[in-house]
Known about the structure:
Helix 2 (16-23) crosses helix 3. The relative contact order is 0.21. Helices cover 69% and strands 0% of the residues. The protein has five helices and no strands. It has one domain: Orthogonal Bundle (434 Repressor (Amino-terminal Domain)). This is Putative transcriptional regulator.
Amino acid sequence: MCDSLKDLRLSKNLTQKDIAENIGISRSAYTLIENGDRNPSLKVIRSLVQLLGTKVTEIFF
């Protein structure tokens, strides 16, 4: 999960702060998700998928 999420973010030229602001969470909360230290809520997963234009399976499996 970690590498996929980070790779997708970087491919879109987005910072962790950009992602966090767009999905309505703090940058530190997003960092924990990206590092694999916290599981995101379903709402956050949906927001990430929509923002990054990808599928859930590309990020988390």
